[in-house]
Every structure is written in structure tokens, then in C-alpha cells.
């Protein structure tokens, strides 16, 4: 009886992992594909001659999807089968003010982890081993958001799954975290600025990362390391501002 239960648990966990891999892969294809189509309309010819690079970006990204899906699937199974995490579904379980606060906590912790691991990836040995894969996209396209070497993909895949064991979060807010992560990852790489100038050059734009900010990282490498916020770049003196106006129209 115990053996049967153990086998059932194994297959349930495996199915959860496979489902999450599929979800992450489809999410990537839909988001990157959607913004690639938007690029074709808004900036015709911007990706001209980059077909081989794009195929490489898609290949690395789908491999990364498998790596991201593994811990996510185990966490999803553990949450549903054993209640392991601090994910909750009852909106009244915590005060309503915790909903936006938990969103900011997750984004800030993720951004902090990303900033420091990203800087580490630019150390010569780690760059050669892993991060060079991502920077092979010159210029980056909407398909490059998850184009990581497996070593780098592992560092990105563990953050949110680890946080759900530590910080309470409503399932809907967790969905918002994942949506923001996906959209900002894609739009920051697509090679043009989708936000109007008055937003990018405003106080809000000075706090958040958009394509105008991240493009300089791909141009100059040792600057603008953040994912969502410019906080750590400013504190650590690695913020080099925004790309020159018109960079996305050449």
C-alpha cells in the first residue's frame, strides 16, 4: 500500500514537472512571438538578417524552459499535495495591503538576486562558461529573453520557487509576478523602446528598467545589470543611463 502511494506520488510529481515545462515553454513562445510580431509592425526590418541568431535564441530558450519548469513543477506538486509552500488562495488569509506589498517584495528580492548573480556572470571565467551564450545575441531580439546557458538558467530558475517557501503570497499575486517577469524579460531585449519618451525619461522611468536601459548593457557589458529596478545599479555605481534617442531606429 505504501509502495503504491509512493509510486502515485512519483508520477504526480513527474506530471507536474512536465506540465510546468510545457507552460513555461508556451509562455515564452507566446510572449516572445507576440512581441516579435509587434516589432515587425512597429520597426520593420529591425530583425532583418538575424534568422540564424533567432533560431539559436529559441533553442537556448526552450532548453531554459525545461530548467525553469523543473523546480516550478516540484513546487506546484508540493503545494497541492502536501501544502509545503506559503502560497495561499483565501484572499482573506492576510490583510489586503499585503497583496501589493508581497508583489513588491518578490520583485525586489528577485531583482536583488538577479543583479548580483548577473554581475558575477560577467566575471571572465563565468562569462566564458555561461553568460557568453546570452551576449551572443547582438543585437538582442524579442526571442533572446530566456536564451541562457544551462548554468545561468539554473541561477534564475531557483529564485521564485525558493521564495514561495519563505514569503506568503496569494496565488493571483504570484501569477502577476510571473507575468511581469516574462513581459519585462522580453520587452527589455526586443531592440526598441515600446514605452513613450515621456515615461522613459520621467521619474518612473528613472526607477524602472526598460529596453532603453538594458540595451546599454548589451552594448557595453559592464553596466546596467538590473532586471526590474535601477536601484542596485545606482547604489553600486553601475548605472550608465539610457541608450541615445533613436538607437532603436537604425
UniProtKB/TrEMBL annotation:
It comes from the Bacteria. One of its GO terms (biological process) is lipid biosynthetic process. GO terms for cellular component: membrane. Residues 104-238 form the Fatty acid hydroxylase domain. Its main location: membrane. Pfam families: FA_hydroxylase (PF04116). Keywords: Membrane, Transmembrane, Transmembrane helix. This is Sterol desaturase family protein. It comes from Croceicoccus marinus.
Amino acid at each position: 500500500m505504501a509502495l503504491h502511494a509512493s509510486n502515485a506520488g512519483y508520477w504526480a510529481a513527474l506530471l507536474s514537472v512536465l506540465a510546468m515545462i510545457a507552460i513555461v515553454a508556451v509562455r515564452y513562445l507566446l510572449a516572445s512571438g507576440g512581441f516579435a510580431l509587434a516589432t515587425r509592425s512597429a520597426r520593420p526590418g529591425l530583425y532583418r538578417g538575424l534568422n540564424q541568431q533567432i533560431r539559436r535564441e529559441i533553442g537556448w530558450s526552450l532548453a531554459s524552459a525545461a530548467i525553469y519548469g523543473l523546480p516550478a513543477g516540484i513546487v506546484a506538486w508540493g503545494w497541492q499535495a502536501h501544502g509545503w509552500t506559503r502560497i495561499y488562495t483565501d484572499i482573506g488569509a492576510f490583510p489586503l495591503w499585503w497583496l501589493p506589498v508581497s508583489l513588491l517584495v518578490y520583485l525586489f528580492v528577485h531583482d536583488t538576486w538577479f543583479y548580483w548573480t548577473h554581475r558575477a556572470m560577467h566575471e571572465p571565467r563565468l562569462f566564458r562558461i555561461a553568460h557568453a551564450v546570452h551576449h551572443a545575441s547582438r543585437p538582442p531580439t524579442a526571442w533572446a529573453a530566456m536564451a541562457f546557458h544551462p548554468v545561468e538558467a539554473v541561477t534564475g530558475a531557483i529564485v521564485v520557487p525558493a521564495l514561495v517557501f519563505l514569503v506568503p503570497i496569494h496565488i493571483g499575486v504570484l501569477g502577476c509576478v510571473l507575468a511581469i517577469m516574462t513581459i519585462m524579460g522580453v520587452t527589455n531585449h526586443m531592440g526598441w523602446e515600446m514605452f513613450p519618451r515621456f515615461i522613459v525619461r520621467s521619474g518612473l522611468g528613472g526607477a524602472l528598467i526598460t529596453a532603453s536601459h538594458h540595451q546599454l548593457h548589451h552594448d557595453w557589458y559592464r553596466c546596467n545589470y538590473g532586471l526590474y529596478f535601477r536601484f542596485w545599479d545606482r547604489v553600486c555605481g553601475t548605472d550608465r543611463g539610457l541608450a541615445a534617442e533613436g538607437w532603436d531606429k537604425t
